[in-house]
Design a protein that fits this description.
single chain; mainly alpha; Rna Polymerase Sigma Factor, Chain: A; Arc Repressor Mutant, subunit A; 10 helices
């Protein structure tokens, strides 16, 4: 979708068109859900954060400033909602001994160990992970990432570089460990 078409939808939604807002939801829901899945503990939490994001976007649509990309504004809302849900759902984990011996759980864990984003989630802090995801999974510009995370462009550039170095070091450690045990 062209940016001008998006602005037409936004203006129509601001004027009260529920169809225009529904089109905006359809345009962003898959990408936002994918992003939220990396920031939430479960699929259900990500869906809750997604729903809260679109409710807030609808409620505060008139505060959207068209000087910035609409996606940046939405991701900023989504980040806040994911953080809020994570805080609400801090639960102490019980004994996992039954699950640890389950072959399906072990298979899933093994599969996840090969996933770069799982490694990134483990190695990087929340904001650096968010910046990395927005840059490489969502293809956002440095300027838009900075705006979404409320950070300077210098912070964004430096932390994306540090994230790449940290992930490279982590992947090298993993591959060295695989050679020893494989």
């Amino acid at each position: 979708m062209r940016q001008s078409d998006e602005h037409i939808l936004i203006e129509a939604a601001k004027a009260g068109s529920s169809d225009a807002f529904a089109d905006l939801v359809r345009l962003y829901q898959v990408r936002l859900l994918r992003f939220l899945l990396t920031r939430c503990a479960s699929f259900a939490d990500a869906e809750d954060a997604l729903q809260d994001t679109f409710i807030a976007a609808y409620r505060y649509l008139n505060s959207y400033d068209p000087r910035w990309r609409f996606s940046t504004w939405l991701y900023r809302i989504a980040i806040r909602n994911a953080h809020k849900i994570r805080r609400e759902n801090v639960v102490e984990l019980g004994d996992l001994s039954d699950e640890e011996s389950d072959p399906l759980v072990q298979c899933i864990a093994s599969s996840e160990a090969e996933n770069l984003w799982v490694s990134a989630r483990r190695v990087l802090g929340d904001e650096v992970f968010a910046a990395t995801w927005l840059r490489y999974a969502e293809d956002m510009s440095i300027k838009d990432i900075s705006q979404a995370l409320d950070r300077s462009t210098s912070w964004t550039k430096v932390n994306l570089l540090r994230a790449r170095k940290a992930l490279d070091a982590d992947l090298n450690r993993q591959s060295e460990g695989a050679e020893v045990y494989g």
